[in-house]
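S2.1 Query sequence (ATP-binding protein)
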Amino acid sequence: MPAAGDGAPCAAARRRRPCTASSDVVSTDFEQTLSTDLGAIPALADAFAEWAEEAGVAAGTVFQVNLALEELITNVILHGLGPGAPGRISLRVRRQDDVLEMELRDDAPPFDPFQLPPPVLTQGIEEREVGGLGVHFVRTLMDEWHYAREDGHNLVRLRKVLEAAP
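Output structure tokens follow.
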């Protein structure tokens, strides 16, 4: 298999490391599968940050993506599957030119997080109900978000346009 950066086309369909094809376009995928352990989220965030740095993603974007993913995964574990319960959550991130495309798939009962109403942000902290900001963060930080139920799984697709290099 050609090494990244040697100018040869990339033979692998899925890689955790950037692979530079002859056109000098970086083609990358990041994939992880999680259990229903909240303690696994920081390791996922670290692994994604390492991959994203190698893929040339700005630190601010890495923070935003990690925050959005943490909120969605936490919701799946706490409200969908249950902490420690059987179930899987899989994440796939692909860089396509100046866009990150993310797919978060889980086998929890059907639930579209984007059908939740936006939180009321005009109330004081004492009057607000606890919770409800996670999906708001996702809507605010990501450029596109979609939900689908496919083959017995919840599928959330996110897109984030990358910042232009300075």
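The chain has one domain: 24-161. The first strand starts at residue 19 and ends at 20.
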